[in-house]
Specification:
The complex is a heterodimer of chains A (425) and B (251). Chain A has 8 helices and 19 strands. Chain A is an alpha/beta fold. Chain A has 2 domains: 264 residues, no CATH class; 55 residues, no CATH class. In chain A, helix 2 crosses helix 5 and helix 7 runs antiparallel to helix 8. In chain A, 54% of the residues are buried. In chain B, 43% of the residues are buried. Chain B is globular, with a radius of gyration of 18 Å. Classes of the chains: A alpha/beta (425), B alpha/beta (251). At the A-B interface, helix 6 and helix 7 of A face helix 2, strand 7 and helix 3 of B.
Chain lengths: 425, 251
Amino acid sequence: MTLQAANRLTAAETQLIDAYTNQIGSLPGDGAVLLQRDGLFDTLKRQGLPTRRVESFHYTDLKALLRALPADEISAVAEGVRPIVTNATVLAIRQGVAQDAGSLPEGLTVTAYRDSLKDGSAAPALTAYNSEDTIGRINGAFVRDGFSLEIADGAEIEELIELQSVHAAGHLHLRFPATFGKGAKATIVERHVGQSDSAALATVVADLTLGDGAEVTWVILQGEGDADSHLGQIRADLGPNAKFRLFIINAGGKLVRQEVHVKTTGEGSDFTLRAVNLLGGDTHTDVTMTLGHNVPHTTSTEIIRNIVFDRAKGVFQGMIRVAPDAQKTDARMACNTLLMSDDAEFSVKPELEIFADDVQCAHGATVTDIQKNHLYYLMSRGIPEKTARGLLINGFVAEIVEELEDEALVEALEEIITDWLEHHG
Amino acid sequence: MLEIRNLHARIAEDGTEIIRGLNLTVKAGEVAAIMGPNGSGKSTLSYILSGREDYEVTEGDILYNGESILELDPAERAAKGIFLAFQYPVEIPGVATMQFLKVAMNSQRKARGEDELTTPEFIRRVKEAAAELKINPDMLKRPLNVGFSGGEKKRAEILQMALLEPKLCILDETDSGLDIDALKIVADGVNALKRPDRATVVITHYQRLLDYIVPDSVHVLYKGQIIKSGDKDLALELEANGYADITGQAA
């Protein structure tokens, strides 16, 4: 679709074009970065924001949902929040600007992403993931900062690393390239905190490479403000025997799309996706995953749990592709939803594309209500019905979080879930 | 304490009548055993007493301390002091055992107009009761009943009973799935709760449990009715001769 006729541009599209024209002189980057930005932006301009006719945006018509962008001005100074667990190493981003890193655990090297834009080292990776990668293109065109992480071979980092982006209204475009060396172990929380009632637009691309035997837990904790739009993407390449566990908790935002693009590129690698979507009000939240089992003997499980209140809409799209020679793949995907109101909606689109013959792939989706025998059991102990329901709703999603081994982190995440439910239940 | 009068009840969904004119009286301080062959309505009776909504009472009444409880939901009955130890306690993933215990204890206290327990007081009570029942504290860190063995589940039920301090305890096949050591621990736990103002109804298929929890009265349930009542010797008689003798007389 072309956008040559001016009357076909939405306000948001016009604003994006104007913003790029106005900012291009001040965006960080050398010539190579500039060329990449131009390339990404040209395609974006030509395609426009995707409508429901673009397959991967069928349930999230970005053109209709993002009619206008919020004002791109800093309205307030973002204030830091306490780390998610007390001894976390916090890498702070305030209003889209990476702050000085401070002392770091051994084996972790951190640089501000703006530096790799300036010296051009970021240019090769500043690409779209696929032909429908609107998020990658907006982010790549406008990105100003973030953190580049490098975890050395064999480094086992015990402390949790928290990428803490706190912002008020305005635009912010962040990138987190992260390389995990052979046998490296780390847990990283990518946390987004919106502090303003006025709207912000945040785009985020995390780009991970896991070396041989690396074990990485990455938690995306999305707590944007009620008016914010959050367009996130995480890409991960899994080397031989690498284990990647991704937890996503969506507990905020007005318009949210979190894309997950994972490829197994080494045999023996394993991917775990767990997502909790807490949806209420008039919000729209989309988790879209593509997973390529590209080599033999790789495994994955995906469990998505959703609680939907009010008139909220949710989407999960999960596409698992098993390459022709990827024998012995074992992939299991499940999406379970509790609809808490008649106007709540959740759309699920599982897709399996299997080109190998000796594989196990399964997917299932349920829309459930609270189980009656669970409710009866709790009530038979004297817990009133409303409280018992609350416990079970909480338990429905807390169960997912409990898979994390870090007790302090589990507790912190459960508190976030409980708080959210108290405000929406 | 408990008086069941000409109770008729059926499964709400398909109308199958399970309880057909049951009469039973249990006094405060009494341990009453209800025995009967499979399918006689033993578990159904326990569910109906606790207020499970899958069953409908069509006739008769259940009086607890002189008042009908038919209109009360399970939580209200529990707050009044009725406790059912389940034959098959459900596993509830995501609900932490300690959180559950605390909410249950405080909900009941609140319903009775008592102050909520402080956290240290709550933890002290749980630790004490758990130690008596030889419950591994790690078990209490797990989600409710999840991954508990059969014996652990039964012990967890008795732990809840000890903490909630009910007035009417109903034990549904508490002996099933227990080895003899676990059975003794559970029985000791039940016996320790015996009080002059507390009644216990023990529902069981086998006499074995009654060696450890000695009943004051034994009632045989068959096809939804109590067809014979007696003292603890009746249980021994059933053990020796099976149910056929008695059910044969009834038929």
